[in-house]
């Protein structure tokens, strides 16, 4: 359509030129010259029409190629988004399977080991057994209970339990952990604060009178779950074991000011 318009414009602009030439050369022009002039004009118009047509088709093809490239880019972008989405979903499924099949069992096993170690240190290894039904075989229950206790004592290098029990008349009762003395106030005289640094990293603090027996430190250890056969006390600076005896007071063992004591596990000997 644009080519036709351009051809028409060139044709209309050529008509005045032809008329001008005819007017100038009317006395001398003949039919042959007139035909030759018209042929040249038409040849010029054809050449211009060809040039305009080729140029227009080239421009249209260039525009169509740009549109095609743009459409291809949009398709590629959509395809890439879809591929990335599928990859993210696949990675999410792998992560969930890894958590469910690897991390979760590992955490459960670690918690189970910590629980077993805690019960073995506190002497409550019977909690690790599956138990027995009421009304079952009492001899079998007693045997399995003794076996579990022996295994726990062997793993912690505890003294072997007695295989022979005294008669019921002279059988000793279970020794309970004595109660700690009442904690004095901060304004009371002759009061020291003892900070106990546990193996777990926690620091516990409590006030005692200097006149209290040093045995209260061991009772305090038992109260918070650290058996005296597995753990010992030592001073922080200088680092040395704290000699605790029932007949000595806190002041006698060197605790005259606020002190930090370290609770550490004893070295196990085979």
UniProtKB/TrEMBL annotation:
Highest taxon in the source lineage:
Eukaryota
Pfam families attached to this UniProt entry = UBX (PF00789)
**Gene Ontology biological process:** ERAD pathway
List residues of the UBX domain: 187-263
Name the membrane topology term: Multi-pass membrane protein
Q: Which Gene3D superfamilies match?
A: Phosphatidylinositol 3-kinase Catalytic Subunit, Chain A, domain 1
Q: Which GO terms describe its molecular function?
A: ubiquitin binding
Signal peptide (UniProt feature, chain positions): none
Region Disordered, as annotated, extends over: 130-165
* Localisation: Endoplasmic reticulum membrane
Q: Which GO terms describe its cellular component?
A: endoplasmic reticulum membrane
Q: Which residues cross the membrane?
A: 6-22, 34-59
Q: List UniProt keywords, sorted A-Z.
A: Endoplasmic reticulum, Membrane, Transmembrane, Transmembrane helix
How is the quaternary structure described? Interacts with SYVN1 and VCP.
Q: What does this protein do?
A: Involved in endoplasmic reticulum-associated degradation (ERAD) for misfolded lumenal proteins, possibly by tethering VCP to the endoplasmic reticulum membrane. May play a role in reproduction.
Name of protein: UBX domain-containing protein 8
State the organism of origin.
Theropithecus gelada (Gelada baboon)
Q: What is the lineage of its organism?
A: Eukaryota, Metazoa, Chordata, Craniata, Vertebrata
């Amino acid at each position: 359509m644009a080519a036709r318009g351009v051809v028409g414009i060139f044709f209309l602009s050529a008509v005045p030129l032809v008329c001008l030439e005819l007017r100038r050369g009317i006395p001398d022009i003949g039919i042959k010259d007139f035909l030759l002039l018209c042929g040249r004009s038409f040849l010029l118009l054809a050449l211009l029409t060809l040039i305009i047509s080729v140029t227009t088709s080239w421009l249209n093809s260039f525009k169509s190629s740009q549109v095609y490239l743009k459409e291809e880019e949009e398709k590629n972008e959509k395809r890439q988004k879809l591929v990335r989405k599928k990859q993210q979903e696949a990675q999410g499924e792998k992560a969930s399977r890894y958590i469910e099949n690897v991390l979760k069992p590992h955490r459960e096993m670690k918690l189970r080991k910590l629980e077993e170690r805690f019960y073995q240190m506190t002497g409550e290894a019977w909690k690790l057994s599956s138990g027995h039904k009421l009304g079952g075989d009492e001899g079998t229950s007693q045997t399995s209970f003794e076996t579990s206790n022996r295994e726990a004592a062997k793993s912690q290098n505890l003294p072997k339990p007695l295989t022979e029990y005294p008669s019921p008349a002279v059988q000793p009762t279970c020794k309970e952990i004595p109660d700690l003395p009442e904690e004095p106030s901060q304004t009371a005289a002759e009061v020291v604060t003892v900070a106990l640094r546990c193996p777990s990293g926690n620091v516990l603090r409590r006030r005692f009178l200097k006149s209290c027996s040093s045995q209260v430190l061991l009772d305090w250890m038992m109260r918070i779950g650290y058996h005296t056969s597995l753990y010992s006390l030592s001073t922080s600076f200088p680092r040395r074991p704290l000699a605790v005896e029932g007949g000595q007071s806190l002041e006698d063992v060197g605790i005259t000011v606020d002190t930090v004591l370290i609770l550490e596990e004893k070295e196990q000997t085979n």
